[in-house]
Design brief:
The structure is a single chain. This protein has ten helices and twelve strands. The strands form three sheets. It has an eight-stranded parallel beta barrel with strand order 5-6-7-8-9-10-11-12. Helix 6 packs parallel to helix 7 and helix 9 packs across helix 10. The longest helix has 26 residues. It is elongated.
Length: about 375
């Protein structure tokens, strides 16, 4: 038997005719693809003034996606949307639509505001639960665990704020269910030394404590750096709802110093924003703070007029209350355009020619809260 040592005998050869046939077929396929591409892309060819041709594909012109490195399961990707800036008129009545945090990065903010008939987007950037809607570098935020985690989020927020949409960042200053739980020394406390909770079962930072003030002021500065047009200080006072009699007096809760403490806090936030003079600082208050009807928060019309570029107030319940609002605003030197109603104002009777003036804060699902001034 003849041994092949692993080599099979050669049984024919691949002729030049076969090679030539394959080459011709390949060239025909390439030629057909080139002709098809020419006709398909012809409409995307743009000629410059000097006669040179340039290919501009639409999907490369509009937006750039950043993959979220640590987004939760099921969350939409962060989208950075670029647009040309278009500042809001100074005296335009604000009609702010309340948007979810997802609209900060999913590219839908402008569409949602337009659909709701608004001219501004309102975002809860420090919520009552203590969480932040952005990635914070503050040591306190890291210690409390309040910062968002997605490293792509801040870039998306900056891109949104660089566009033409007017944006408001709401900061729940002292109503914070997270920070007092992590550091009891910052809290409004009960006589037993525990965290006091309000009627909604939410903890509060004490406005009296320097560390609590510094944390909130730091959050405001970071939000200004992210490009928000307006920062709204909500719950920027002492609590007024719940079992206040359980709060331990003295120290973190001295009623004789409420207004003095808030004056110092508002000044601290102003100082934190000194490098961002274009950012408006707004304050939320109860109607009683404006009318002087026994408000216990520490806020006064004098303080609101001293620090607020815009006031967020509950809608007046009657024509008389509305007139009190107007008189208070006049005393502060603020125009009616600087007032925003956080709840529907009263509807004037047909016999009355008076109508309350001011902007509105509304959810897209709550059309009854929207009123064109």
């Amino acid at each position: 038997m003849r041994r092949t040592y692993g080599y099979d005998s050669y049984r024919g050869r691949f002729g030049w005719r076969n090679i030539l046939t394959i080459l011709i077929v390949f060239l025909l396929v390439v030629l057909a693809a080139a002709v098809a591409a020419f006709f398909l892309l012809q409409k995307y060819v743009v000629y410059t003034d000097d006669g040179q041709a340039r290919l501009e594909l639409p999907f490369l012109q509009q937006k750039e996606s950043l993959p979220p490195a640590s987004a939760g399961v099921g969350e939409p990707p962060v989208v950075v949307v670029t647009a040309q800036p278009s500042p809001a008129p100074e005296e335009e009545f604000l009609r702010a639509a309340v948007l979810p945090r997802s609209a900060l990065y999913d590219g839908t903010a402008e569409e949602q505001v337009a659909a709701a008939g608004g001219n501004a987007a309102w975002f809860d950037m420090k919520a009552d639960d203590g969480t932040l809607g952005y990635v914070s570098d503050l040591p306190a935020a890291i210690r409390f665990g309040s910062s968002a985690a997605d490293p792509a989020l801040n870039a998306a927020i900056k891109a949104l704020n660089d566009g033409g949409l007017y944006t408001v960042a709401r900061v729940s200053c002292f109503r914070d269910n997270l920070a007092p739980r992590q550091d009891n020394s910052l809290a409004v406390r009960t006589n037993s030394g525990y965290n006091w909770r309000d009627a909604g079962d939410i903890r509060w930072l004490s406005p009296t404590v320097e560390g609590a003030q510094d944390y909130v002021a730091g959050v405001c500065r970071e939000l200004a750096a992210l490009g928000f047009d307006e920062i709204l200080l909500d719950n920027a006072a002492y609590p007024t709802a719940g079992q206040l009699e359980y709060i331990k007096r003295g120290g973190n809760y001295d009623e004789s110093r409420f207004s003095q403490v808030l004056d110092a806090f508002y000044a601290k936030v102003r100082e934190a924003l000194k490098d961002y003079p274009e950012v408006k600082l707004s304050l939320s208050a109860g109607g009683a703070a404006l009318t002087g009807a026994g408000d216990k928060s520490g806020q006064t019309a004098r303080l609101l007029g001293k620090y607020a570029d815009r006031l967020y107030l509950p809608g007046p319940e009657s024509e008389e209350v509305s007139r009190q609002y107007d008189r208070a605003l006049e005393g502060m030197g603020l125009s009616p355009a600087r007032m925003v109603f956080t709840s529907p104002p009263y509807v004037p009777q047909p016999a009355s020619s008076y109508a309350p003036m001011g902007g509105t804060l509304f959810s897209p699902a709550q059309e009854t809260m929207r009123r064109d001034p």
